[in-house]
Amino acid sequence: MKMKRATNTSHKIHRRLSDEISDELGLTIKVNKIKPDLSQYDLIFVPGGMGTRKLRFDEEFISWLRTAEQVNTIVSVCTGSLLLGAAGFLKNKKATTNPNAYELLESYCEEVIKTRIVKDGNLITAGGVSTSIDLALYIVELFVNKEAVEIIKKQIDYPYDVQGIIEV
User: Fold this and answer.
1) In terms of Cα–Cα distance, which of 27, 33, 21 is closest to 58?
2) To bridge 93 with a disulfide, which of 62, 120, 157, 168 should be the other Cys (CB 3.0-4.6 Å)?
3) Which residues pair with 43 in a beta bridge?
4) CA-CA distance, 118 to 114, in Å (whole number)?
């Protein structure tokens, strides 16, 4: 399957959140809720990507993200941790991110730990994209049990043991 760049999409970051957003390749996603009150959730997951480098300076977005302050579990993968940092969630915390962004994370947290997954209190940060499966399995173990993890690993044909987890 070949990816083709859409020719009539906007590539600028919109200053206002909307019900529809397109990525740089033209993939468009439409949502049914805009800026829900994040405090109503038990867990929020903040993904990363190249857009986080600019989005961390978007005060409207960061203010909205701060509504998750009372959420029981806050999780990020890749450079999603930069957004958590910009929202103040990493203050006095240890965290990780994509190895290519360790330096960008330094100003937001107490210490950048160069590992795959870091759990500091209710905050879980994970490294690059390949860490996503390990992160999912780690979360399943936290909320369910090790047996559930083994069942999932068998279903997805994942022969690896989760490693590189630091719990502070």
Assistant:
1) 21
2) 120
3) 73
4) 9
User: If you ran DSSP here, which 8-state letter would residue 4 be given?
Assistant: -
Contact, 21 vs 29, CB < 8 A?
A: yes
> Is 109 an active-site residue?
no
- The one catalytic residue in 55, 68, 75, 78 is 78
Predicted confidence pLDDT, tens digits, the chain (168 residues) = 333 333 333 334 444 667 888 877 888 888 887 788 899 999 999 999 999 999 999 999 999 999 999 999 999 999 999 999 999 999 999 999 999 999 999 999 999 999 999 999 999 999 998 899 999 999 999 999 999 999 999 999 999 998 899 999
- Distance from the first to the final alpha carbon of the chain: 43
- Domains in the chain, CATH or no CATH each: 20-167 (3.40.50.880)
Q: How far apart are CA 91 and CA 120, in angstroms?
A: 11
Q: Are 101 and 125 in contact (CB under 8 A)?
A: no
- Rounded CA gap, 87 and 105, in Å? 12
